[in-house]
Amino acid sequence: MLAKVAPPTNDFLALARYLVRGKSGNRTDPKRVAWVATQNLPTTDPELAARYMGATAQLSARTKSAAYHLMIAWHARERPTPEVMQAVATVTLELAGLAEHQALIMGHGDKPHPHLHILLNRVHPESGRAWKTSHDFARFDRIMKELAETYGFEFAPAHTFNPERTDTQEKLPNSAATYAARRGARTTRPQWSKDKARKFGAEISERLSANATHDDFRELLAADGLRLEAKGQGFVVGDDSTYAKLSSLGLAATARTLARRRDYTPSHPHINTSVRQHRSVFAVDAVDVARAFHTLGLLSREDVQAAMDDARAERRQRQQETALSRATHTTALTAFLSPREPQSRRLPAGAPRTHPKAR
Questions:
Q1: pTM for this prediction
Q2: What domains lie within the chain, and their CATH numbers?
Q3: Per-residue pLDDT at 186 exceeds 70
């Protein structure tokens, strides 16, 4: 058995309707809803329960995504009864500290594997405080392992939190990456397994000399059909089909030379630096590189501070040059635009300056 968390939403009713009917436009399987149960709600009607939860969520004006969606699934060869599935759902919420929260629990029978869905209200019905979702996947993963042992089911570990059992498995895109891919983002590539990343990092570390430059590193990657890309706050190594985080490679070669380079631009296919006048969210400078390698343990805080000091000095120099250029331009423009009276209309000294209409 395993637990999967979907991105929270602020629409209880839409989520409840999805649990009952599936995606809009698709024909609803008559076996989809096998049973319905609720927690701290006066009804088992899904839409009415969703309205109750939506009203309760108003107690917390600051909570924007109170509708929390959790799924629990079993292996196809396992056949838990509805009573056992409901018990597992109840104990799961209790162990997560959610026994007093409102929840709609629904068992589905339209897949080969038994599974249930929990629509939870993060806002407490009395205190109005919202349950914090930080580290929720790890929390439910531990709960699944405990309940699998208690009820005698097979535990399916989550990739991130069980490295000893998933060391050779690729990490597939999560729900957030899948949603982003639908909007055009390049987030559908799976990550290398930890074992593959370590072996590649060890191999490429042997091929890098102590005074290697950034160009040397990129050439070694290109020889294997790979490239270095900026992704989020860090870097990844990969191709069009798979990738690995730079931190997962465990590179042993010194990164001092790489971090102090000023002429490096990330190999991001969607960035045209020739038309960008301001630093975009994808731009990478020496400070970014220094911070990235500091997280790998390859640079010290002093190295990062030195890169920051150099960046500040360059920024001050650019500002001074810009200010001087503007001052020069302003002086020239002022001189050019200053009003000058034609020579033929200048009056002798002491002559009255009377407007012609006043004569």
A1: 0.51
A2: 2-151 (3.30.930.30), 188-303 (no CATH)
A3: no
